[in-house]
Specification:
Length: 269
């Protein structure tokens, strides 16, 4: 029997913790056949990003077309798109209805503070890609940039999720993995499902090893959508998966900075 197939359109993280590498590990852990279109190479490790080499938008589209023309892709996840030209080109494909169950993680800055997106691409996200997404999954900082307003508390996080929905996505998740948005002890993400907001809650894991959390959450959402789950169930399953992967990563020491997650449960007692 064939496995479900998902496509990630994202950047390569040479350190293996985020980007394409995190996405493909997540897909494999969740029994989904992963395919990929690489938007940029990054020279990166757990300490930071040393360099970025973006692919031409035309070659990103060539990779996507090669996959779509041959394989039964059931869901698509975007991560680091790097340039405005790539965001626009991917948006054009999405507008043609070629990117099913589209999960858009608008990666802008790494946890080490390095820019992963041209500022000129922010508008292309707002007006080009978001209207074609089944769900968008920015973190608190990306949400503030996209909406041009600050998020100080949980009420703001709910209002922001609604405001992201107004940009046209089917649903929006404002992730709360950065301390400003969290009550102590709980990692709270706020979802706008097109009708109302609700919260995804999980125990906070006290660890520096959080490199690739956002990529893994979005990839897990795409994986569960590829399995045929509805969006609400897929988001809950993805939250559960990423929490376990973070808890596993808290048990190991890979690299001197923000270490990766344990995607396969290798550290599970
Ligand atoms: N230390 C942590 N403990 C538990 N959950 C976390 C932790 N850090 C992040 N998360 C969760 O991981 C997911 C990704 O969120 P976030 O880290 O905000 O994304 P990004 O990597 O894009 O900044 C969210 O579900 C968030 O709540
Ligand atoms: C190539 C690449 N893509 C994305 C990121 C950012 O990853 P993300 O999962 O948003 O996690 P943090 O590491 O920022 O928590 C990246 N660093 N590199």
């Amino acid at each position: 029997m064939n496995p479900p197939v998902a496509l990630t359109i994202a950047g390569s993280d040479s350190g293996g913790g985020a980007g394409i590498q995190a996405d493909l590990k997540t897909f494999a852990a969740l029994r989904v056949f992963g395919t990929s279109a690489i938007t940029a190479l990054t020279a990166q490790n757990t300490l930071g990003v040393r360099g970025v080499h973006a692919a031409p938008a035309s070659f990103v589209i060539a990779q996507i077309a090669a996959v779509l023309d041959d394989l039964p892709v059931a869901s698509v996840k975007t991560g680091m798109l790097a340039t405005a030209a790539t965001v626009e080109a991917v948006s054009a494909l999405a507008a043609q209805g070629r990117l099913p169950n589209l999960v858009v993680d608008p990666v802008m800055v790494s946890s080490s503070g390095d820019r992963l997106l041209e500022p000129a691409a922010e508008n292309a996200y707002r007006h080009g890609l978001f209207p074609h997404a089944a769900v968008v999954t920015p973190n608190l900082r990306e949400t503030e940039v996209l909406l041009g307003s600050s998020i100080r508390d949980r009420d703001d996080q709910h209002a922001a999720a609604r405001a992201l929905g107004d940009l046209g996505a089917g649903a929006a998740v404002v992730k709360g993995g950065h301390p400003a948005g969290n009550e102590p002890g709980t990692a709270v993400d706020v979802v706008w499902d097109g009708k109302e907001t609700y919260e995804l809650r999980a125990p906070w894991v006290d660890t520096p090893n959080t490199h690739g959390t956002g990529c893994s959450f979005a990839a897990a959402t795409a994986a569960y959508l590829a399995h045929g789950e509805d969006l609400r169930t897929a988001l809950a399953s993805a939250k559960d998966y990423v929490t376990k992967a973070i808890a596993g990563g808290a048990r190991w020491h890979l690299g001197a900075g923000h270490g990766p997650l344990d995607h396969f449960g290798w550290t599970r007692p």
